Amino acid sequence: MERAAALFEYLLRHGDSCLILGHRVAEWCGHAPELEEDIALANIGLDLTGQAEQFLAYAGTLEGKGRDADALAYSRDAWDFRNALLCERPNGDFAHTMVRQFLFDAWQVEAFAGLARASDARLAGIAAKAAKEAHYHLRHSGEWVVRLGDGTAESHARAQAAVDALWEYTGEFFETDAVVAALGDSVPDPAALKPAWNATVDEVLRAATLRRPKDGWTQTGGYAGRHSEALGHLLATMQFLPRAYPGATW
Amino acid sequence: MVNAVASPASDRVARAWDVLAHVPDPEVPALSLVDLGVVRAVRDGAAGLEVDLTPTYSGCPATAAIALDARLALERAGLGPVRIATVTDPAWTTDWIGPAAREKLRAYGIAPPIGQAPKGKRALFAEDVRPACPRCDSGRVEKTSEFGSTACKALYRCLACREPFEYFKCI
Known about the structure:
The structure holds 2 protein chains of 2 kinds. By secondary structure, chain A is mainly α. Chain A has helices at residues 3-26, 35-63, 69-74, 85-88, 94-115, 121-149, 153-166, 178-183, 194-207, 229-238, 240-244. Chain B is elongated, with a radius of gyration of 18 Å.
């Protein structure tokens, strides 16, 4: 694979993962269990959407076909999205949302720390900035996982159910394929992020009295555009306005 | 009004910094854009004034408003045409908010960021910071929310005077 084409794909993976998860957490706006959490989730969603905008704007420039971040976000269909499958999982209950966020944040912190040292200055700049935000999110989601897991019997059961249900979506973060291979040393090796992710996840699950599921078969395909039904429903909501009213402005 | 075109280049740049030092941040108007540290460079280019701005947070919704306010203020001061560019490297940090600007924040009722931004990897569950209450200066405070009304702030409550207040997050 050509390097420019590989970098375009790679930027979509980060950009789309941020965009789709950002939309998911924003779905809680006005529905979160308490006001502070409503604000927190909206803020996290905003950070993720901002990160997505940076990655997608770069992808559009690189592609050179005149697509900006909005065109990439609102005018592609599901099979053109490259987000990790974990990000499109429906919100479920609050435990589900927080466990999903935690598993993602623990990965994103490591991925951005590595990317901040990338030889590509624009990519490194986006990642160095976003890494600070990811740290803040991780602390928030990690504390919630502990609070829920080590809380009541009900919250513990729900948190464990969420960990069990989402675990099979975490393997995708660490896979290597032709896109990563074409980029060589210019981006972090996904597999090399696993030990640090493991350490964070183990520390939090232990404090939360939650059981770590066995690593086994992994859901995969998001990075190649093979998505679950959930993404189509999400896009139908997220893309409605610009599709119904093309070119609409405030 | 002074004829901007006739001014020497360095004078134009100095005047531009002065103008930007009086443009309030749209969300924290106690601080100017220069106080906040988002103005990274001002150059006198061939096609006019070039200003580099950096966003505080990736998703800060005020970024576009800041760029517009900066451009309008410079044009009103006769320093146009102005080209605004967004730069992300190096990433914005609260370390760029100087002592005088931190005092402005406190006087405005927002507890300024404490100390230097953490470098490198952070402890997952670090101890909460305890900003002094900006109203009564008590250190007896508690965090009520890690996230606040804007991306850059967290919410606290003073246990002495019972007033809620915002803390400018240290990043």
